[in-house]
Amino acid sequence: MKLLKFFFILLFFLSFEINANDLTNHLNEFFKQEYSLDTKNFKILLHAPLEKNKICKKQHFLLSHHFHSVGLFDILYICGRQHQFLKLELQIQGQYIIAKKKIFRGTKISASDLKSITGRLDKLPNGTYFNKQDVINRVNVRDILPFQPITSFMTRAFWIVTSNKEVTIKFKGNNFEIITTGKALDNGGAKEKIRVQIKSGKIITGIINNDGQVIVVL
Hints:
The radius of gyration is 27 Å and the shape is elongated. Residues about 1-20 have low confidence and may be disordered. About 15% of the residues are buried. Helices cover about 15% and strands about 35% of the residues. It is of the alpha+beta class.
């Protein structure tokens, strides 16, 4: 009798382990297809067990629009007419950008200031840069220490237009272009939107091109 009881207990745990593994496999496939994640670089941890009566072969998953791809989050598991919210943790390995040396505030960052390393992306602060090209030619707004991950909150665009300076304004329409000058009311870098005041006193908004001109599309 004891042997039979032990057999059923063992069978239960084996069944749970198989179901849990099967669920993890389905989740791996879901993230691989929906978010182009390489299964070699991420690991899924299930923080809440799936209810036994909600295990099925044709399962579906729904994620919030605010999913940021790392850390703890909820996912809706759908099995026929039944559903359950699961608490998952997604651990991702990948490359990110750190400071190769101390970068003093106000520096126009160059490639020699940066280093790319591999580590846990889910442990990084929000806004961490993953590509050097996204950081190069930006200006840091505070000192960055050696080996510190660089985030978008630490940098700003390199200003090619500064507030209260005269700028060239180009009004562009269908088959015509009007060029005039005005006063910049904001600081801004290439491809950023700023306000300018034209000679009539009217304030308009345009986008800075690589030459420091403000383009207004009519």
